[in-house]
Amino acid sequence: MIAGKQDSALGRTPYYVLTGGLAIIFLFPLVWSFYASVSPQAGTAQSEGFGWGNYQTMFDFGAGLPTVAGNSAVISILTVAITLIISTLGGYAFARFKFWGKDALFLLTLSILMVPYATLLIPLYVMLNAVGLSNSLVGVALMIAMFQLPFATYMMRISFEAIPRELEESAQIDGCSSFGVLWRIMLPSVVPGLVTVGLFAFLAAWNDFFAPLILLTDPLKQPLPVTVANLRQQTMGVINYGATEAGVVVMALPCIILFLLLQRYYVRGFMSGAVKG
Q1: Cβ-based neighbour number of residue 20 at 10 Å
Q2: Residue 99 CB coordination number (10 Å)
Q3: How many CB atoms lie within 10 A of CB 110?
Q4: 267 vs 74, residue with greater confidence
């Protein structure tokens, strides 16, 4: 019995070594950023001893951390909402309805993934400028959501397809409409897929730099990534690495917290589009 347990432990040793090594590789940059943000550096607000001087610099820079973090939050929430609503309806339609050109339309939707992000920024800027959304948080959210929709629609389609049709047919026999089936039966069964899509959309919106840089000209509307990039530009060309690392830590915290809280749903949704239960 004891020998069997020892053999099992030895057999899992390579697994522990590999996962431990990967954990160290991925965690090291985060730990280093936090260390650099509180360590003393000449020419910064934290020139002597360890402390939170660099975070104070970050807090007071530009429009102030509450404003820029609020801008990032608004962009992220709008992006998640737009992505979830459109991808859920689109994924449900592709998974359950038959219509002419369905497969071709789905492939056309996925083809957006093959277009480089940067090549569409200027044309989209011209379009949004024409409708008065070139300097608004809504315009930024719409632009980011557009690039999230192909993957999100794909995820929602395979999530809906994993649900047995018998559940849907039983609800329709009981008198549910198509929307009623979607709301009462399908959505509770694809929570992992919804969480995966929402998490990806949030991470993309929270960390996006190019779209806000192109669309937003008002300093009071700048989100965190643009503010952190501007924070690097200091007097006489000297970069304030301490404050920059403080900005990196502030940007990373919401992403880490959300991922840890939603990890169970994220893994299930991303790996298989699993059915609830």
Answers
A1: 10
A2: 8
A3: 13
A4: 74
